[in-house]
């Protein structure tokens, strides 16, 4: 075979090949729209010129402390301007951004700091006592920088920490920031809150961050100058890459230290917010706010939700309040959302229950994800697209992580056979939409029948009184396991075990109906995930 | 220095690294929105499922003829469904798409076919006689396939050619199409209509096509399900990558064989067109249509224009007719538009003349272009950002061509020193926007003073009677050269040499005022570019 003539004398050069990186989005935004408001935080309105300038100062100051390619800078920050600056300034000196979940315990934080080999820590003053506790447990001895957010007036401080603003001010605003040497270079590390074993450090690269940041805008039709409200924690998969998306579309970040209804409604009404993200619990919070906190909106607002399928009643009330809700799905290993419930225009004419059923499905691949399917993990063959046969959800493409840090075994296992094995169980519908059915551990096996705890939860969510439902296996002498339901009620609603039992009988096969209903607060992880292993323990006690 | 820990055990695998290619956009669109209308052409409404299926059949049939990686398939087609199918089907078998400008002469076409080593030619029946003439001159002897567009009823045919639809029908709709082996693989070749010397074959790669296709949507805020009207020839830089953009946003192509006012207005009104592209001449055509052909539009339509700055009067009348006009700029070497006149909201409050002045500037880099500037080509130093000092416009980034086919010398020259040297001369404004001033050849040097022919043309365009103005150098005994203006008038307008002379005296330094005004049809190249070298010849005759 003769050589491909289109490969002769046509090699990559610096003129036609540059590493993909989202850092250039900020440079462009600052250059083209220097005066546009990039960040709103309380009374602060920071322009793109200042945002870019401060990010470069931060990068310069970090470089002055010896930070460079492959060094880890760990941050424990709320959704503040400092956190946004770190998303640019840390990689701009070549370092890797390690965002720590602020709800973790000191021991887990210490593990992360050691495992990530943190050289510098930037902490919000509020979390300084927790960070001090973690550092006392950790082996690493990073330089500590403390951010004193003017919007925070509560307690907390760490003796001897450097002041963040003084640190930034010491940097050069014209610092010649470093492009990645290769788009495969790491931009961030985020530890998964695994239910078992040590947390794993998910390493993301510049290429994937660039592509998912654009994918967010493309997949969700975010127009130029959109205004984004930070109800989603930025420590969660780098805020699903939205810190970078906003620079691409020259939008405005509206920061929020705490997810409470009043400031959310105020931002929606006064800052012209067009987009926000969060779990269904954030929608509940918005929707169940006291009437005097709610505000009239003069435009439709886009709400992107993930973590759990949005219940029908919530969808209806959000629609009435002026929100279009889009269901997304992904994992830390996929940079945040890599799956979208693409909505078909004609579905909006269907009855509410049918719409909710369609919207409960996680959906189809994001544009920058090359492949998504449900495979039998043993044979690696696709399951039939029948909406019933359960397999493992698998991802392939450019928005799948680089791997787990310092964990080649877990990396190889997760990326075996050309697919990222998500560990999530789901089905493939005839129209190609995937739907999660469970994590492997959450399958309830009763009398030899598999029961999807999610299916039972969905039935419960359809009951108007139910705010949150979590179903786990309860040991049973006859059947091995039976479902046990933990329920939190909507504000002002009452119900009882008999009512919910009858409800489930109407909506589920009888073997799937929970034998027990428990009305109590449901334990959650720091990222808001329901701690099913705690519930399984509790159910086990209740079954005795 | 210790090795970067983030590069250990974290290599690319098929699970997390795939070649970027726009071909996957169509696969996704067909999978998620199979029934959505992808292509409208006369009475035809083709769904995404059928579009994808036919593209695979075409790829399969081409593969059956031995086409594979590095083979060239040449097409001479109007803006028809077949042309869209070729943008996917040809690269889906690994081959490279060579689109031929239908306005070229047979000799030039023959040169291209030979230089590109065409193995298969697909021609519209209308252009079959021209293609037959070209093939008689060419050395290559490709298989010829003829497309008989139902929307074309005029003359033309080639004896012995295979029928396009039968050829497609012979292919397998489930053909396992080929991903590029590397995203640097060629996807297309387009010959520039150079004013001197042989045409150069600009080779584009999958990576750049993917990024510019997305860049179009991101830069211009194209929402999901946008409807795009094909007033821009697809043989021109692959229709600026819009054949691929539309699949990314699951939009609808409205085909158009001929750019005439009546079908454009009909499509705008009846097909819900949201976006279209073209040179200012297309806007003139739309705007100067007889009133009974114009239609009321119930929405704003986005018009992307390039090739010449849009004149103020045209901007005003387009605005009144319901169009938002965005000025783009690029070259075949940059996949089409890679520069955008990013509009600032507050500019819309300025007087019309000031808006036109701002909009005449080519602008700033597209999101997927990493760098754009104006350099002194001798020193490769940036010119001062004063809006006056002329230098050469230079591009750097992932939407710069792979190089010129079988022309390593021209490739190296064009991509020297880490920049693509565009050959276009321009200035850099204090706000970072670039503005073209001339091609090197179009500078008029009068009495030692440089005169930008574009500046003189802009002055003429501001006169209400002027539809098209082209200014070139005319030899002059005293001054060496003086400007000579060729002018086409707007429909129904009259003016004369004295009037325009006085107009220019009011708006230009006296040495820039044309010594001669010629009122006659202005010759254009097949891509609509004014043939200044013909005008220079004509001016030289007139000066005798």
From TrEMBL, chains A, B:
<dbReference type="InterPro" id="IPR042099">
    <property type="entry name" value="ANL_N_sf"/>
</dbReference>
<dbReference type="InterPro" id="IPR000873">
    <property type="entry name" value="AMP-dep_synth/lig_dom"/>
</dbReference>
<dbReference type="InterPro" id="IPR045851">
    <property type="entry name" value="AMP-bd_C_sf"/>
</dbReference>
<dbReference type="InterPro" id="IPR025110">
    <property type="entry name" value="AMP-bd_C"/>
</dbReference>
<dbReference type="InterPro" id="IPR020845">
    <property type="entry name" value="AMP-binding_CS"/>
</dbReference>
<keyword id="KW-0276">Fatty acid metabolism</keyword>
<feature type="domain" description="AMP-dependent synthetase/ligase">
    <location>
        <begin position="26"/>
        <end position="405"/>
    </location>
</feature>
<keyword id="KW-0443">Lipid metabolism</keyword>
<protein>
    <submittedName>
        <fullName>Acyl-CoA synthetase</fullName>
    </submittedName>
</protein>
<keyword id="KW-0436">Ligase</keyword>
<comment type="similarity">
    <text>Belongs to the ATP-dependent AMP-binding enzyme family.</text>
</comment>
<dbReference type="Pfam" id="PF00501">
    <property type="entry name" value="AMP-binding"/>
</dbReference>
<dbReference type="Pfam" id="PF13193">
    <property type="entry name" value="AMP-binding_C"/>
</dbReference>
<feature type="domain" description="AMP-binding enzyme C-terminal">
    <location>
        <begin position="455"/>
        <end position="529"/>
    </location>
</feature>
